[in-house]
Amino acid sequence: MVKIIFLHPDLGIGGAERLVLDAALAFKNKGHDVAFYTNHHDPTHCFAETKDGTFPVTVIGDWIPRSIFGKFKAVCAYARMVFAAVYLAWYVIPVEEPTLIFCDLISLCIPFLKMARGPFRVVFYCHHPDKLLTTEGGVLKKIYRAPLNWLEEFTTARADKVLVNSKYTARVYQDAFQKIKDVPDICYPSINTEFFKRTIPKGLKEVVPVGTDKFVFLSINRYERKKNLKLALEALAELKNIIDDSDWDRVHLIMAGGFDPINLENMEHFMELTDLVTDLDIEDKVTFMKSPKDVEKVSLLYNCKALIYTPSNEHFGIVPLEAMYYSKPVIAVNSGGPTETVVNDVTGFLCEPNSKSFADAMSMLILNPELCGRLGEAGRKRFETKFSFEAFTNQLDGILTRERQIISEARAIEYEQRKSK
């Protein structure tokens, strides 16, 4: 058994949070001791494993503001993580003596973690280069971002091992960080299948006021503009023009996703989506859910007919895997991570990011129930073959074994050097 520390900015509800928790579960299943350190943890807005005692969670630096007058969010996020890293280096690492420190999202913490003495290794999981996530701006924005972008590349290179979530992200990483010569390892995320196996889905009406006779399309994504959720609504409106009235009467879209009440964008975008539903005259065809509980999410996946996944250039995308586990076809944009999980015309449809393309795919499933079942079954088989939690666990355990071997070799060299003196 070894000690493993996870450092993550905000243990809320999202794909990055699900990934680090699943990685922690994978290590725990192998008998290792795992603990989380974070800048923010709200027990009312988090995954169950961070509040039910599965992992100890320590909050550090939450007193540092998230922004200054609504600006400088990146600088504040970096400051919060640096503070947490310094705290770990001074007070935690010397006492806990971890073998591995697993961090993600913000690489600036890495050099500060390495201020601590000890034979530990730092693994950085790059979901996507942060420099590419920021919106374009004017001259002042470019001046503001320039040092942050340089620091991101410089500090990412300080990691002992860098992991990425897909071949797509690996290509983006190498294009964004051309001074880093080491090639990152691809570690496909998975889902905690043990949780899914032991969770009994509720009936659809116990979760949302939607009849079981409906053909339910499901969208699960955070309420953020980059997730392009309006595409699902526009596709639904376009679908009305393709199918006849009797089929249209059966259609319903459930839009569920992470909603943080202290996140201004979440609040603004939720209102934008509800306004769009009114403008498209599909109020009776859409049900919104904010931050569904785990059992509710499982119930939605179990009871839906198909998943609508709308982000373009998504780094990977966990939700399509969850849908595939439940044998549901996935309709996704033909870019980014979904091109590695969804096989077009085999496990679902990869579409252009426009309402017509998505509506055409949706209509095929409605008009051909056998196709819906066949695609779903193929998706489950693909999940078991390539994206199972067992495969994810074994890959992470292999990484840990290699890092421990490097530590052992370093200790042997140090011992020989001391002996020779």
TrEMBL record:
Q: Where in the cell is it found?
A: Endoplasmic reticulum membrane
Record EC number: 2.4.1.132, 2.4.1.257
Where along the sequence do coiled-coil regions lie?
A: none
Q: Does the keyword Transferase apply?
A: yes
Q: Which GO terms describe its molecular function?
A: GDP-Man:Man(1)GlcNAc(2)-PP-Dol alpha-1,3-mannosyltransferase activity; GDP-Man:Man(2)GlcNAc(2)-PP-Dol alpha-1,6-mannosyltransferase activity
Domain called Glycosyltransferase subfamily 4-like N-terminal: residue spans: 13-194
Topology in the lipid bilayer: Single-pass membrane protein
**What's the short name of a Pfam family annotated to this entry?**
Glycos_transf_1
Primary residence: endoplasmic reticulum
Name of the protein in question: Alpha-1,3/1,6-mannosyltransferase ALG2
Provide the species name.
Euphydryas editha
